[in-house]
Write a structure and sequence with these properties.
This protein has 204 residues and is α/β, with parallel strands linked by helices. α4 packs antiparallel against α5. The longest helix is centred in the middle third of the chain and has 33 residues.
Length: 204
């Protein structure tokens, strides 16, 4: 029987290095990466409205669930190989998520003052799926981007509190990630390795 797939959510406000860190983690742990569909949608359409939120949410969730299903199938195959050849245990498979359900809700509430109720309910259910949230701090320079909204330090701090509070209120498992890029990467790798229960992946 294949082990459960562990979903790792890279989480935090804009311009905190989520996409960069998610790619690093996926490469380091040789895990599937689920990219942010909202960015792809924006690049294609040039705008995101409240009416677009349900479709964006559903497609993000579909892609994530598809990656998890593929990882589970691959892990089951690997488990059979290990059992047949050495009798050892297969390592729990990972899926790295560049964004996740709560982020959709937080941005919808910030930008439009509301979130469609089916998206909000879905996000609340799905928030329990993640084995670990990596909460990225805003202690790095803001990088301008047409999709980004809050460059001022006071607004970035407000967003940091919103994202932190979303995890605390729901009692979700998270590790705070801060410092320069190298420190962020080291902390995140160590957190995921600890979740897996070994130290071998801590060294980059």
């Amino acid at each position: 029987m294949a082990p459960d797939v562990l979903r790792i959510a890279v989480f935090g406000p804009e311009s905190t290095g989520k996409t960069r860190l998610a790619a690093k983690l996926a490469a380091h742990f040789r895990a599937p990466l689920v990219a942010e569909y909202a960015r792809e949608f924006w690049d294609a359409q040039g705008l995101i409205t409240l009416e677009d939120i349900p479709g964006i949410a559903r497609e993000q969730w579909r892609r994530e669930d598809e990656a998890v299903a593929k990882a589970a199938k691959a892990a089951e195959t690997q488990s059979h190989i290990i059992d047949d050849k050495s009798g050892g245990a297969a390592r729990a498979p990972l899926v790295i998520c560049d964004t996740e359900a709560l982020t959709t809700v937080l941005w919808s509430d910030l930008l439009y003052g509301t979130t469609p109720e089916d998206v909000r309910r879905g996000a609340e259910r799905r928030a329990r799926n993640y084995a670990l949230y990596l909460l990225l701090d805003t202690d790095v320079p803001f990088a301008p981007d047409p999709q980004r909204c809050f460059p001022e330090p006071e607004d970035r701090e407000k967003c940091r509190r919103v994202w932190h509070g979303a995890l605390k209120r729901r009692h979700l498992p998270f590790v705070e990630i801060r410092g320069d890029w190298a420190e962020r990467e080291r902390t995140a790798i160590a957190a995921v390795a600890a979740l897996l229960g070994f130290r071998g992946d801590v060294e980059a």
